[in-house]
Amino acid sequence: MTSPLEARSLSLVREGNAVLDGVSFAVQQGEIFALLGGNGAGKSSTLLTFLGFLEPSGGEVLVNGASVSSDVAAARNAIAYLPEAASLYGHMNAYENLDYFLDLAGKSAGRSEIDAALERVALPPEARTRRLHSYSKGMRQKTAIALALLRETPILLLDEPTSGLDPVAIDEFHDLVKALATGGQTILMVTHDVYGACQVADRVGLIRDGKLVGSFAAEDGERIDTETVHAAFAGRGVA
Amino acid sequence: MSAVTRIAREEWRLWLRSKVVIAAALIIAVLLAATSFLTIDRIASEQSQRLEQQVAAEQTFFAQPDRHPHRMVHYGHYAFRPPPPLAMFEPGVDAVTGQSIFLEGHRQNTAMFADTKAAADLGGFAALTPASLYQLLLPLLLIVLGHAMFLRERESGTLAVMLAQGQSGVTLAMGKAAALLGVIVIFMLPLIGVAAFSVSAGESVLAAFALAGGYFLYLCVWGAIVLAASVILKQRAVSLGVLIFAWLFAALIVPRFAINTSSAAIDAPGKIESDLVMLAEQRKLGDGHNAADPAFQQLQAQVLEQYEVETIEELPINWRGVVASYSEAELTDLLNSYTEERMGLEASQSRMFDLFGIASPTIAISSASRTLAGTDLATHHRFLREAETLRFDFVQALNQAHAEQLDYTIDINRSNDAASSQRARINAASWQVLDEFRFEPDRADERLSRSGLTLGILLGWLFFAGGVAGFAARRVKI
Q1: A95 vs chain B: nearest CA distance in angstroms?
Q2: A-chain residues within 8 Å CB-CB of B4?
Q3: Contact A76 B6 (CB under 8 A)
Q4: In Å, how far is B151's CA from the nearest CA of chain A?
Q5: In chain B, what is the greatest distance between 2 CA atoms, to the nearest angstrom?
Q6: What gap in Å lies between CA A159 and CA A85, rounded to an integer?
Q7: Does residue B214 contact residue B456 with C-beta atoms inside 8 Å?
Q8: What are the CA-CA distances from residue B190 to residues A10, B34, B131, B415 (Å)?
Q9: d(CA B307, CA B222)
Q10: Alpha-carbon gap: B9 to the closest alpha carbon of chain A (Å)
Q11: What's CA B332's distance to the chain center, in Å?
Q12: Where do the DSSP E strands lie in chain A?
């Protein structure tokens, strides 16, 4: 069975530095895979290669079995991407932002569909007509997630999705991600939050200096053991 | 709605929600409206005044009483150059060349009543006219609006989101270009209005809309330059700085340099300098007022032989009139040779200046603008030539009347007493020799053809800047 996301011996060299070195993993449909690593470990770069924003120096990345290099448009069409900064337009309100980006993605959604998505991410109705420059980080993040929901893509890439969110918002976000995975979406998230990764992911890959140095999977419906992963993350042992 | 249109629409939404942008656009719109109104009013007034003055000058000449014909040669006449209809947008060199000329015997006078000498020193860039606003201020507005329009997406992270929606850098650049194009089209409206008004005032449709097309091309060049900077550069402060420098370079530095270089490379002596040199050669030709001047001995022998007489008193024509006519023709040949040489040098300077359009689109449009409006140097030179033809024809017609209608003996004794002076006059009907003079701009196709080089340079600029922007957009990375 073809994996929706797969990295095969992925290497990446930027400005003479090896950013990724032989990274291989596959994410199955309905699975949440968290790529965990410190700053500069190569996790965001891994994610960007799936979008075709970075060209691998070696190996390849595949989306739905097709090499991204050979058909980047198909890859982007299948993926909804949530960048770390939840970058949307500050001079527009939530409706205008969502309408605009959906239009660019070749999708259309009516006001009721957009409202439903915003309800799902718990963005208060009174905030929806306010321009985003007055939003908190969490509200912007919710709007960006709503965009990902409305895209209705089979794959979701999340770059440090809980960075800057308060604990309540993080819990809400985790619930939402789990629900999406249950609904069949394949989710690859990159994070340096050990606890968050273990809370939400079915599998955690540990990346360090561009290499995938460990992998942890939940078993029998249990969560991944945070202590074990934290020890590995801190270099006290690798599973 | 296509992605390009949608991106353009959202750029407009940003601009319309920005107080700075709205304020800048309004200031320029008000300046444009005020300058257009004032220039149209001034040019329309000058146009009717000069036409009236031309008719009045002719009527005054015709209304002169019986006189000695040579007094009428020195009484003289005026030729006026009414501004063409498109001068209400582009006064061009008219402000510095003078638009009326006093025509008299034995002299080629300089055109008079230039509006400003200061503007000449700045190559015509000093006066605030609708054309100068389009040439100088609208590019600044495009810079203010567009310097960050692409790189802002990169700075704010929305570029990645946009590309992730399946759009390419080229599509994004095209959307931004379309947004700027919308601004250009809106700011073309006043010019199109002036062009339409000039057509109603007698200008050809081709010339009026070629002028508008030239400015559209020019603004598109600046739009492409702004877009290219915004795609290539990574920081908005750098982009703004680079574009402001490009504007200073194109609009102020290169024109100043081009004027100095053209003047230094092709040394065209001024009118006064030419006149001093000419005076020495003029003396060799003899004094046409003195029929006994040795310079006319050969002519005298030829004329006496032609009429088979021994003395000038026996001639059936007035020898003094013959000398005046001969002298005027000789002198005019000399004057024309100097004038043509000077105009040739000025035209060469102008052509060299035009070539600097390769380094500055502002020079290219300013040259094309003057040519298409009929306010360029070539048109002024044609006015001088046509005025000179008018001068020569009426002076020679008066000299002919002098030779044929006034007896030689009466003529040489005209200063004896009042009665002699009275007898040495010819009938005022002879003043009808003056041709009606109405100066018209060149045909539109001739003006268009003459502006081909500078319009071609502008087109080259558009392809270059657009190509750079397109190439950079194709390689855009987050």
Answers
A1: 13
A2: none
A3: no
A4: 14
A5: 106
A6: 9
A7: no
A8: 58, 11, 11, 64
A9: 73
A10: 10
A11: 26
A12: 5-14, 17-27, 32-36, 58-63, 66-67, 79-82, 155-159, 186-191, 203-208, 211-217
Contact B430, B398 (CB under 8 A): yes
For the whole model, what pTM was predicted?
0.86
Q: How many residues does chain A have?
A: 239
Element (H, E) at B280: helix B271-285
| Closest alpha carbon within chain A to B10 | A100
Q: Between the CA atoms of B234, B235, B237 and B239, what dihedral angle is there, to the nearest 10 degrees?
A: 20
Q: How far apart are CA A202 and CA A186, in angstroms?
A: 11
Token pair of B446 as six digits: 């001739």
| B14 touching chain A per CB within 8 A | yes
Residue A166 CB contacts under 8 Å (≥ 6 apart), including other chains? A138
pLDDT tens digit at each of 478 positions of chain B: 799 999 999 999 999 988 888 888 888 888 888 888 888 888 888 878 888 888 888 888 888 888 888 888 888 788 888 889 999 899 888 777 878 888 887 877 777 665 554 444 444 444 688 999 999 999 999 999 999 999 999 998 899 999 999 899 999 999 999 999 999 999 999 999 999 999 998 899 999 999 999 999 999 999 999 999 999 999 999 999 999 999 999 999 999 999 999 988 888 776 677 777 777 777 777 776 777 777 778 888 888 888 888 888 888 888 888 888 888 888 888 888 888 888 898 899 999 999 999 999 999 999 999 999 999 999 999 999 999 998 898 888 888 888 888 888 888 888 788 888 888 788 888 787 777 788 888 999 999 999 999 999 999 999 999 999 999 999 887 7
Q: Which candidate in B165, B168, B478 is best for mutational testing of the A interface (most A CBs within 10 A)?
A: B165
CA distance A69 to chain B (A): 14
Instruction: Say which residues have a Cβ less than 8 Å from residue B196's Cβ, sequence separation at least 6.
Output: B208
Nearest residue in chain A measured CA to CA from B1: A103
Are A149 and A107 within 8 A, CB to CB?
Answer: no
Concatenating the DSSP letter of every residue in A65-105 gives: TEETTT-HHHHHHHEEEE-TT----TTSBHHHHHHHHHHHT
Q: Does B6 touch chain A (CB under 8 A)?
A: yes
Q: Are B14 and A89 within 8 A, CB to CB?
A: yes
The pair of three-digit structure tokens given for residue B283, joined into one six-digit string: 């003396």
Cβ proximity of A188 and A21 under 8 Å: no
Asked if B368 and B459 touch (Cβ cutoff 8 Å), the reply is no
B478 DSSP 8-state letter: -
